[in-house]
Amino acid sequence: MEMHTNKSDTNARSTRKKVAYVAVLALVIILISVIVASLVHRKILGDSSVEDPPWHRARLPKSLVPQHYRLELKPDLEASVFTGAVEITLYCLEPTRYIVLHANLLNITADSVFLKTFRGGSLTLEDWFLYPKNEFLVLKSKTSLETGQRYVIGIKFQGQLLEDMRGFYRSYYTANSTRRYLAVSQFAPMDARKAFPCFDEPAMKATFDVTLVHQSEHSSLSNMQIRQSEVRSGGWVADHYYTTVRMSTYLLAFVISDFSFKEGVTGVHDIVAVPQMGVPAMENWGLVVSHENRLLYAPQLSPVWKKEAVASMIAHELAHMWFGNLVTPVWWDGVWLKEGLATWAAVRGVDAAEPTWMVKERYFVQSLHQILLVDSSNLSHPLQLTVTGQDDVGRGASLMRMLNTVLDGTFTKGIVKYLQKYKYANAAQDDLWECLTEAAQEDGRTDVQVKDVMDTWTLQMGFPVVTVIRNYSNGSVTVSQRHFLYDPEANVQESLRNNVWQVPLAFMSRDSGNVSRDNGAMSSRDVLWLKKREEDFRSSIDASSWLLANTNQTGYYRVNYDVTNWRLMAEDLNSDNFQNIPSQSRAGLIDDAFNLVRSGDLAPAVALNLSRYLKREREYLPWLAAERVFGYLHMMLADTNSSSDLK
Ligand SMILES: [Zn+2]
């Protein structure tokens, strides 16, 4: 009992002791967590004493711009992590104590962050913290940085080499049943900040000295050539690259792998195929990275279309070296411009190299008809808002084609001006319009104010259908326009219904007659502008001859005609003279006619009568157009009583 009592006494004492320990421990834990929380809070949320702090805004402040980066990255492929160090030279445009830059999912090494003057004078860094909401890293200087002075910041960091195909990521392939890893970058549009702290906006251009550290059995690639390889301990090699040109962060590229590379495929550019990639291909400056499916072509095994697809992809990415890389969009709403110009240039490039593929004609017929189709919905959007997919790229390219037709040789001249003026810098669409207008005026083309024209095509949603009504007794032609929609009852804002475009009309007639404002003589190359909702023109065309208003369908719009003109065209098409109408126009007529039926603007009999001529057609483009519209007809009539009539 005593013993028992004693024991229970001992137990009670030890329990009290334990409680005391636990209490002390709990207190310590609470204290530590409060301290840590306050530290973390400080490191994450920043300085709450500042009113309207710059890191609360989504865009980088304009007080500091980067000039040069010295960047070293060392990925560990097996451990799936990387470490790095960056030193950034900054130029101060406005006095500030805050250096705001991007960093996302990076661990910043606490005691590594420094700030100094460009000449090496030390400056006190009062604090630094991450602001994850805007993916910012903020450095707070004790004293204000001064306008016109240069400064250097330095940061060491670690990150994870995830297999997420964004930023600096890990990819793999299997050889001899073992998995081999490679490290690849995909920074566009805004994942460079996931690889290193940087000013990750397209207009924040700078030069870069890149060093990639890898195991000796691997090799590295970046935008530039290797200047020097340095052997380091532990089997590591540091490849130091030549300084880049002035460029945007999203165009940097790094690849570390055990691939062997074919030298000199394109001369100055490397093109590398990787097994996992989030986009089909990326136009990194000097190092195009492509998904392997898109790049690899085996002459004995791949189908013929693959050769053309690979050529087109390479041409597109190389065209970006000028449109996008040399001259970069100011912001991401201008992406359509680089995509449109690169596509337009690439199509012409491939066409020049392999004219027998007919890439130019085919691309424009194929993509124009596809885009006109998707752009006829009330769910479409203005081009300048953002490039959301392949259709917007084609839409941009089609607008460039229209502008090129209108401006003729002046277009190329304007493009050269634009590249010269904005090289190694950034430009928005208005800058291109200005260069094109300048070139047009130098060439005596005073009729075109490119901005006025193009704003109607890029800032408004959709496109117009132009209706041509001829008066066969007095020769006058009334041309009107309205927003083309498949469903005229569609829920569209009233303001959109009033959209007016500046439409370049390129007329052609069966006889030599033409259309003009004042019945004056005009060459067939001339363009007449429809700038109002409706205008009257004069024509010298015989009443027995058809009139075509969008010759070769170079304009991004549809055309409807009066019934007599449709009949005149159908008569000619259904005769041995059907080639009086050029093949691109024949393709355009087929596409327009059936889509006008779909929107309720044209009687089905008119379109079907027109299409009867196809039994004579031996050219590819009109059949390409027919395939699309018949496919739609077939789909709509498949389970109806009319399906046998269609056949
Ligand atoms: Zn592109």
TrEMBL record:
Peptidase M1 membrane alanine aminopeptidase domain: residues covered: 269-457
Keyword Hydrolase: yes
Top-level taxon in the UniProt lineage: Eukaryota
Cofactor or coenzyme needed: Zn(2+)
Keywords, comma-separated and alphabetical: Hydrolase, Membrane, Metal-binding, Metalloprotease, Protease, Transmembrane, Transmembrane helix, Zinc
Membrane-traversing stretches: 20-40
UniProt-listed GO biological process terms: proteolysis
Active site (record annotation): E317
InterPro entries hit by this protein: Aminopeptidase_N-like_N (IPR045357), Aminopeptidase_N-like_N_sf (IPR042097), ERAP1-like_C_dom (IPR024571), M1_APN-typ (IPR034016), Peptidase_M1 (IPR001930), Peptidase_M1_aminopeptidases (IPR050344), Peptidase_M1_dom (IPR014782), Peptidase_M4/M1_CTD_sf (IPR027268)
Source organism: Branchiostoma floridae
Positions of the ERAP1-like C-terminal domain: 546-642
Protein name: Aminopeptidase
SUPFAM superfamilies per UniProt: Leukotriene A4 hydrolase N-terminal domain, Metalloproteases ('zincins'), catalytic domain
UniProt GO MF annotations: metallopeptidase activity; zinc ion binding
Note accompanying the cofactor annotation: Binds 1 zinc ion per subunit.
Domain Aminopeptidase N-like N-terminal residues, every copy: 65-251
Binding of Zn(2+), residues: H316, H320, E339
Stated family: Belongs to the peptidase M1 family.
Keyword Transport: no
